[in-house]
Amino acid sequence: MEYVTAAPHSRSEAAAPARSGRRSLAVALLFGALGAAVVLLATRQRWAEGTATVAGGAFPLTAKGSDVTGVPAALAIVGLAALVAVFAVRRAGRLAVSGLLALSGAGIVAGALATASDSSALDEQAAKASGDTSATVDALTHTGWPYVAAAGGVLILLAGLLALRYGARWPAMSGRYERGTARPRRAARPADPERPEEIWKALDRGEDPTGA
């Protein structure tokens, strides 16, 4: 009689999906968290600067990313929430949240690139500074921070794509941490009538020492 034993490489092949799932999870968490941090940092920096003519002189003007557009920062927060929610849902819910994560990254990229050369925020400042609603900013220049925000959006997009591809292999929140679950209490052991100290201890705990 011949005995067939499993080859060592078959076990390694079975463990390969688990390893790839752990690696993709670590990379997605890194990309998502880093991308959101980069986007939030970039939107607080100076995106454009120029001057406005006020009383015959040049008045310097600057605009942060949050002054130009609020889309990247808002979508970065949505992306962070989606990254956390991936572990709270399963199956179709996880697929939907992963898609939201990817769309958040794509929206950040589109929003940052679309406003990289925008001057409307500075034009509004020039109109307020000069008192002329038709005034526009002069000597307009732009910084590279919009492209940094777009790079952060790419990282979030990649995290979403990883979640779409490998999310089914990632762990979910354990049911033992869900609200409403209580550990079963062990039944009280009847006190030994031959040991008076146990009877008194049972009475102190509010138990029936007879076990009836």
Q: Give the C-alpha Rg.
A: 31 Å
Give the helix/strand class.
mainly alpha
Distance between the termini: 61 Å
The chain-level mean pLDDT equals 80
| Beta-strand residue fraction | 5-15%
Largest sheet: 3 strands, antiparallel
Number of helices: 7
The multimeric state of the shown protein is single chain
The helicity comes to 55-70%
Overall geometric form: elongated
How many runs of DSSP E, i.e. beta strands? 3
- What is the H/E string? HEEHHHHEHH
Which strand order does the major sheet show? 2-1-3
Low-confidence stretches: none
Model description:
By secondary structure, the protein is mainly alpha-helical. Helix content is about 55%, strand content about 10%. The chain is built from seven helices and three strands; from the N terminus they run αββααααβαα. A three-stranded antiparallel beta sheet has the order 2-1-3. A hairpin with a 2-residue loop joins β1 and β2. α1 packs antiparallel against α3, α1 packs antiparallel against α6 and α3 runs parallel beside α6. It is elongated and about 95 Å long. The mean pLDDT is about 80.
Provide the fold topology:
Elements: H1 8-42, E1 46-54, E2 57-64, H2 65-68, H3 71-85, H4 92-114, H5 120-130, E3 138-142, H6 145-166, H7 196-204
Antiparallel strand pairs: 1-2, 1-3
Helix pairs in contact: 1-3, 1-6, 3-4, 3-6, 4-6
List keywords for this structure.
three-stranded antiparallel sheet, mainly alpha, single chain, about 210 residues
Summarize the entry for a quick read.
The protein is mainly alpha-helical and 212 residues long. Helix content is 56%, strand content 10%.
